[in-house]
Amino acid sequence: MEGDLLMGALNMPTAVAVALAVLGGVFGLLRWFAARLLQDIEQRLARIDEVDARMKALVANLPLQYQRRDDAIREMAQADERYQRAVEQIIKTLRDELADARRRLDAIERDRDADIRRFQLREDAIREYTSLNAKIDRIYEVMMELRHER
Protein backbone atom coordinates (compact mmCIF):
# COMPACT_ATOMS: atom_id res chain seq x y z
CA MET A 1 0.00 0.00 0.00
CA GLU A 2 2.70 2.24 0.64
CA GLY A 3 3.89 1.66 -2.89
CA ASP A 4 0.41 2.45 -4.13
CA LEU A 5 0.36 5.66 -2.25
CA LEU A 6 3.66 6.68 -3.77
CA MET A 7 2.46 5.55 -7.17
CA GLY A 8 -0.74 7.31 -6.75
CA ALA A 9 0.99 10.59 -6.00
CA LEU A 10 3.31 10.25 -8.92
CA ASN A 11 1.76 9.00 -11.99
CA MET A 12 3.67 7.11 -14.55
CA PRO A 13 4.22 9.87 -17.13
CA THR A 14 5.58 12.17 -14.44
CA ALA A 15 7.95 9.48 -13.17
CA VAL A 16 9.17 8.81 -16.68
CA ALA A 17 9.63 12.55 -17.32
CA VAL A 18 11.61 12.97 -14.06
CA ALA A 19 13.71 9.91 -14.86
CA LEU A 20 14.40 11.20 -18.38
CA ALA A 21 15.25 14.64 -17.01
CA VAL A 22 17.73 13.16 -14.50
CA LEU A 23 19.13 10.87 -17.16
CA GLY A 24 19.43 13.81 -19.60
CA GLY A 25 21.27 15.86 -16.94
CA VAL A 26 23.68 12.98 -16.30
CA PHE A 27 24.31 12.60 -20.04
CA GLY A 28 24.75 16.38 -20.37
CA LEU A 29 27.31 16.38 -17.56
CA LEU A 30 29.09 13.39 -19.12
CA ARG A 31 29.13 15.12 -22.49
CA TRP A 32 30.53 18.31 -20.96
CA PHE A 33 33.27 16.34 -19.09
CA ALA A 34 34.02 14.38 -22.26
CA ALA A 35 34.31 17.63 -24.29
CA ARG A 36 36.68 19.12 -21.72
CA LEU A 37 38.72 15.95 -21.62
CA LEU A 38 38.82 15.87 -25.43
CA GLN A 39 39.87 19.54 -25.56
CA ASP A 40 42.63 18.91 -22.99
CA ILE A 41 43.82 15.86 -24.95
CA GLU A 42 43.84 17.89 -28.19
CA GLN A 43 45.92 20.64 -26.54
CA ARG A 44 48.40 18.09 -25.25
CA LEU A 45 48.57 16.42 -28.65
CA ALA A 46 49.17 19.83 -30.27
CA ARG A 47 52.06 20.43 -27.82
CA ILE A 48 53.39 16.94 -28.51
CA ASP A 49 53.21 17.64 -32.27
CA GLU A 50 55.03 20.94 -31.74
CA VAL A 51 57.75 19.26 -29.66
CA ASP A 52 57.96 16.48 -32.26
CA ALA A 53 58.37 19.04 -35.05
CA ARG A 54 61.09 20.84 -33.09
CA MET A 55 62.86 17.54 -32.41
CA LYS A 56 62.69 16.61 -36.11
CA ALA A 57 64.10 20.02 -37.06
CA LEU A 58 66.83 19.63 -34.44
CA VAL A 59 67.69 16.15 -35.68
CA ALA A 60 67.72 17.47 -39.25
CA ASN A 61 69.96 20.43 -38.34
CA LEU A 62 72.22 18.55 -35.95
CA PRO A 63 74.54 17.10 -38.61
CA LEU A 64 74.77 20.51 -40.28
CA GLN A 65 75.60 22.21 -36.98
CA TYR A 66 78.05 19.46 -36.11
CA GLN A 67 79.63 19.83 -39.53
CA ARG A 68 79.80 23.60 -39.06
CA ARG A 69 81.46 23.03 -35.70
CA ASP A 70 83.96 20.62 -37.27
CA ASP A 71 84.52 23.05 -40.14
CA ALA A 72 85.06 25.89 -37.68
CA ILE A 73 87.53 23.81 -35.67
CA ARG A 74 89.35 22.77 -38.84
CA GLU A 75 89.42 26.35 -40.14
CA MET A 76 90.72 27.63 -36.81
CA ALA A 77 93.47 24.98 -36.85
CA GLN A 78 94.40 25.94 -40.42
CA ALA A 79 94.38 29.64 -39.56
CA ASP A 80 96.53 28.95 -36.52
CA GLU A 81 98.94 26.95 -38.66
CA ARG A 82 99.16 29.76 -41.24
CA TYR A 83 99.68 32.26 -38.42
CA GLN A 84 102.48 30.14 -36.95
CA ARG A 85 104.17 29.84 -40.36
CA ALA A 86 103.91 33.61 -40.87
CA VAL A 87 105.35 34.27 -37.41
CA GLU A 88 108.20 31.81 -38.03
CA GLN A 89 108.92 33.46 -41.39
CA ILE A 90 108.95 36.92 -39.80
CA ILE A 91 111.25 35.70 -37.01
CA LYS A 92 113.59 34.11 -39.57
CA THR A 93 113.61 37.31 -41.63
CA LEU A 94 114.29 39.44 -38.56
CA ARG A 95 117.11 37.12 -37.47
CA ASP A 96 118.65 37.30 -40.96
CA GLU A 97 118.37 41.09 -40.94
CA LEU A 98 119.89 41.21 -37.46
CA ALA A 99 122.80 39.01 -38.54
CA ASP A 100 123.30 41.22 -41.63
CA ALA A 101 123.18 44.36 -39.48
CA ARG A 102 125.75 42.85 -37.10
CA ARG A 103 128.04 42.04 -40.04
CA ARG A 104 127.69 45.59 -41.36
CA LEU A 105 128.32 46.99 -37.87
CA ASP A 106 131.44 44.85 -37.51
CA ALA A 107 132.64 46.10 -40.92
CA ILE A 108 131.95 49.71 -39.90
CA GLU A 109 133.84 49.21 -36.63
CA ARG A 110 136.80 47.70 -38.53
CA ASP A 111 136.72 50.65 -40.94
CA ARG A 112 136.53 53.04 -37.99
CA ASP A 113 139.49 51.37 -36.30
CA ALA A 114 141.44 51.58 -39.56
CA ASP A 115 140.45 55.26 -39.91
CA ILE A 116 141.55 55.95 -36.34
CA ARG A 117 144.93 54.31 -37.02
CA ARG A 118 145.30 56.31 -40.26
CA PHE A 119 144.34 59.50 -38.41
CA GLN A 120 146.87 58.76 -35.68
CA LEU A 121 149.53 58.08 -38.32
CA ARG A 122 148.56 61.32 -40.04
CA GLU A 123 148.74 63.22 -36.78
CA ASP A 124 152.10 61.64 -36.05
CA ALA A 125 153.26 62.62 -39.55
CA ILE A 126 152.00 66.18 -39.08
CA ARG A 127 153.77 66.43 -35.71
CA GLU A 128 156.91 65.04 -37.25
CA TYR A 129 156.64 67.43 -40.21
CA THR A 130 155.98 70.35 -37.88
CA SER A 131 158.93 69.35 -35.73
CA LEU A 132 161.14 69.07 -38.82
CA ASN A 133 159.96 72.48 -40.03
CA ALA A 134 160.69 73.96 -36.64
CA LYS A 135 164.17 72.45 -36.73
CA ILE A 136 164.75 73.69 -40.26
CA ASP A 137 163.52 77.15 -39.26
CA ARG A 138 165.88 77.11 -36.30
CA ILE A 139 168.77 75.98 -38.51
CA TYR A 140 167.91 78.74 -40.96
CA GLU A 141 167.85 81.31 -38.16
CA VAL A 142 171.16 80.08 -36.82
CA MET A 143 172.65 80.25 -40.32
CA MET A 144 171.31 83.74 -40.82
CA GLU A 145 172.76 84.81 -37.53
CA LEU A 146 176.11 83.31 -38.51
CA ARG A 147 175.97 85.07 -41.83
CA HIS A 148 175.25 88.41 -40.21
CA GLU A 149 178.05 87.91 -37.80
CA ARG A 150 180.52 87.45 -40.52
Keywords:
single chain, 150 residues, mainly alpha, 2 helices
Report on the architecture of this protein.
By secondary structure, the chain is mainly α. 97% of the residues lie in helices and 0% in strands. The protein has two helices and no strands. The model has no long low-confidence stretch (mean pLDDT 86).
Number of strands: 0
Principal-axis shape equals: rod-shaped
Residue share in helix: over 70%
Radius of gyration, rounded? 62 Å
Biggest β-sheet description = none
Task: Give the SSE layout.
Layout: H1 2-9, H2 12-149
Short description:
This protein is an all-alpha fold. Helix content is 97%, strand content 0%. It has one domain.
